[in-house]
Amino acid sequence: MMLCRVDGNITSTVKHPTATGVRFLICQPITADGAEVGAPTVAVDTLGAGLHARVIVTTDGKYMTEVLKSDKTPVRNSIIGIVDQ
Amino acid sequence: MMLCRVDGNITSTVKHPTATGVRFLICQPITADGAEVGAPTVAVDTLGAGLHARVIVTTDGKYMTEVLKSDKTPVRNSIIGIVDQ
Amino acid sequence: MMLCRVDGNITSTVKHPTATGVRFLICQPITADGAEVGAPTVAVDTLGAGLHARVIVTTDGKYMTEVLKSDKTPVRNSIIGIVDQ
Amino acid sequence: MMLCRVDGNITSTVKHPTATGVRFLICQPITADGAEVGAPTVAVDTLGAGLHARVIVTTDGKYMTEVLKSDKTPVRNSIIGIVDQ
Amino acid sequence: MMLCRVDGNITSTVKHPTATGVRFLICQPITADGAEVGAPTVAVDTLGAGLHARVIVTTDGKYMTEVLKSDKTPVRNSIIGIVDQ
């Protein structure tokens, strides 16, 4: 799980059929002080995270299996918490 | 899942028997601004991503299990979305 | 598993329903000499690790499945040991 | 999966009992242009990759489970393709 | 799997109950030439690796499940080979 800052969203028309109706966000890993570190990750947001919000991102796909109603979906990362400001 | 830019394709004659007929692409992780960051990943493309296209790459292998019709395939990463331009 | 230093805690009101009542800590990977290296990870603490404590963090989610009493929780990383001082 | 260059082989006498008779190679991740990037990975070779060959390395352990005839082997990474020259 | 150099051991009194009686080592990833690269990993040693030994570390937890006699242990990484000198 990573501490990230939301850096933008992604629109994708050509995509895996199970990925319909989800919101993909670009999430930049940051340190406790907010410094950028390492490569961004793409995660699905179901919590309503805004641009520049700090979020907790998981790489565990079980939640996406549930949200997308598909045991076969390759969609994996998701936002599991919005950090209080 | 990573935001990547397609940097090239790979041709491989000597390979795992389950990897027949798939298109391997070199995918370079990038930031929201397009800056390169970290090591490239190799992913299978089934969506028709072109050179320099921006794509979402998953490390979840379930889709490849389905595409390659093999529960035993070690092929894992795939492109699950092409980012709209 | 990573050797980390606890750099802070995270409070999150809007979060995944299975993540209730857990303590999320920001854990910075360090070398044997204590130098920071790489991106921090977020892990659940059940052992009572204090700020600046050195800890062992796992990315294996089985313990969280047990603690949170949910086979479907996407919460994954946890502290599995506090390093003796 | 990673694009790597074979940088050497490893001989190990003291090892996990399931790892008998396998060839471990040091595989350095590279970019499409051949530049080194990130930490090397150790992978089992069953395809006959030579020194300096470019290869595709997977972190999926299913193939090793099959090759080593053990559901319990912790051996995981393997070379799944040699890049054509 | 990673090529690592053993940089030290960790003693931990407060830890997950399944982690009793194991030896945690700090393992620094290195290149084929011995240069340090990336963040260290913590791995369990059952092979008797000494300080500064070069080892192969796996992130696959199946061996630990067996050693610790627990399907629920979150202990994961282990040393699966000591590199011959």
Topology (elements, then pairings):
Five copies of one chain form a homopentamer.
Chain A: E1 2-10, E2 14-15, E3 24-29, E4 41-44, E5 54-58, H1 62-67, E6 78-82
Antiparallel strand pairs in A: 1-3, 1-5, 3-4, 5-6
Sequence stretches where pLDDT stays below 50 over 5 or more residues of chain A: none
For this structure, what is the CATH class of chain A?
Mainly Beta
Envelope shape of chain A: globular
Structural class of chain A: mainly beta
Number of domains of chain A: 1
- What is the subunit organization of this protein? homopentamer
List how many beta strands of chain A DSSP finds. Answer: 6
CATH topology of chain A: OB fold (Dihydrolipoamide Acetyltransferase, E2P)
What characterizes the major β-sheet of chain A? 5 strands, antiparallel
Determine the CATH superfamily of chain A.
EutN/Ccml
The largest sheet of chain A has its strands arranged as: 4-3-1-5-6
Give the N-terminus to C-terminus distance of chain A in angstroms.
Answer: 19 Å
User: What do the pLDDT scores of chain A average to?
Assistant: 97
- Largest chain-chain contact? A-B, 27 and 26 residues
Helix content of chain A: under 10%
- The number of helical elements of chain A comes to 1
Strand and helix order of chain A: EEEEEHE
The CATH architecture assignment of chain A turns out to be: Beta Barrel
The Rg value of chain A, from CA coordinates, equals 13 Å
